Amino acid sequence: DIGVGLYSSAAEKLLPDLEKRISDLTAKIVIGQEPLSAWDDLVAKTKSDPQFIQATKELSDAYRKRNGQH
Fold it and tell me: Out of 14, 22, 28, 52, which could bridge 33 as a Cys pair, Cβ 3.0 to 4.6 Å?
């Protein structure tokens, strides 16, 4: 896994809630309580979330630093 050893304080805060939202929505889509389009809505909302954007930046920076790319 390319992400092993990378750290982001924003991701640490964000991931438990994000994983639960993904799991809950997946279950609702599978049993027909939500349309498949709800997945696209979740993705769009997540991509625009400031905490997600910060986590992505922190993890990208950590990856570059680990690989000697500043």
Answer: 28
DSSP code of residue 68: T
CA distance 47 to 45: 6
Residue with tokens 């680990």, as numbered in its chain: 66
Crossing angle of helices 50-66 and 9-30, rounded to 10°: 120
pTM value is: 0.80
Average pLDDT over residues 23-29: 98
Query: Cα–chain-centroid distance for residue 68?
Result: 25
10, 51 in Cβ contact below 8 A? yes
